[in-house]
Amino acid sequence: MKRIFLLWFLTAAVLTAGNIRVLQDRKLTDLSQGKFFFPKFSPAGEAVFFTSENYNGLWKLSLESGSLEQISSKPGIGYKFQFTADGNKLIYRTTNFKNKRKFHSLFEYDLINKKENVLEESVRNLSPPQINMDGNVFYIAQGVMKTASAKLLKTNNQSVSVFIEDRNLFLSINGERKKLNPLGKGIYLWPSLSPAGDKILFTAGGKGTFICDLNGNILVELGYANYPKWSPDGKWILFMKDKDDGYNYTASDLYVKSEDGKTEVQLTDTANEIEMYGEWSPDGTEIVYHTNNGEIRLIKLQYN
Q1: Which of 98, 127, 152 is the C-terminal boundary of a domain?
Q2: What does the DSSP 8-state code read for residue 64?
Q3: Does one domain contain both 4 and 52?
Q4: 181-192 pLDDT, tens digit each
Q5: How far is CA 225 from the centre of its chain?
Q6: What is the pLDDT of residues 107-117, one digit of tens each?
């Protein structure tokens, strides 16, 4: 199919199904500015942050003014970077090599004062920063779970988080870790808690994407759905259906599926572009993603 090009002021739907439709799909960056990947909304939704090839460097794009600012040029910094809940700080991991051995450091960057603080330096086993259901940023250094930020999005009676370690799916409640692995031994990817904190979304290599409860009981099988992401209200799952030849991606489009797995909506449908790694806006009305050639794009949704 030919891409249906829409100007920002048009309100006609590109694709529609269920009670979601795509109103607009527009470019946020141009290739003349560089090739960018893995975009993510700031917690307030006023800006989009992204990295470049090989996760090197971080950039901030203001959605109001369109201004583009480079935050850092450090190597590996763009891999799974996180925001503190107030949106004022970034937590990111960098990579360096010493005597052919890989080491990681963890930093906290103040977006207001533009100052960087070292949290962990030259650690062999250091996970990327992650977010638990309280909005805290946490990470795992040498097998020990640590909190990088105590800024809370919300307050709960217990602190719950899910994470991957050695390809296994772990659940942590109030610091007590338990290997979950709902489908038994395998390769687990992309785990996340539902906004309500009562369900876990995850992908199992070669088996598909699933939703389970906190005891590991499978509730919903979503099928082939890579890089799955809960919508802010927990009613939809954003994901990509990608194909590769063993070396490179050959095709990919973005979809959303209802939490119960019964309704699926295709968001992109192109013959000459590969759309990947979508992320929700804080209010769930927009999605950012990157194309294989390095463009950052934004989808505007309407709920009927």
Answers
A1: 152
A2: T
A3: no
A4: 999 999 999 999
A5: 14
A6: 999 999 999 99
